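debug: dumping io for the single-chain case to check the tokenizer round-trip. Nothing else runs in this session.
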Amino acid sequence: MAYYCQVSEPSRGINGPKPVRTRHLMILVFLVWGLFGGFAIEGLEFSRAIRYVGDWPWTSNEEPSAPALAASVVIRLVISAGLAVAAGETHQITGPFGALAMGASAPLVIEQLARTPLAPTPQSKPPLRIPLTKSEDVDEV
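debug: decoded output
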């Protein structure tokens, strides 16, 4: 599904105004669907916590307080929306379902990106070898 916006001034074509795909509209689409993906996962986790505790989660000593829970949800939603917009703007995803999936999987994507080793450059030196045991450090004759 493509999102289009009509331009207000006629184009030079013979058929009048042509639909123009706007960047701002697509950013908004990615943002909203990324937020929904993050919110869906948070909602599932929240309902699981309610079932586990049997009451509001912050009433239990095992769960975080209400302000801490609210802060974690806001952080998750901002990360989900930001990652969906970034993926959409770099054409890694092309529509609402991709943005929803990116928003829902944002913590996993960020974790995998953090674990990815950087490729060595030709100018970089090999890593220093640190001995693991004393026997590796001392050569016996």
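debug: round-trip ok. Residues 30-108 form one domain.
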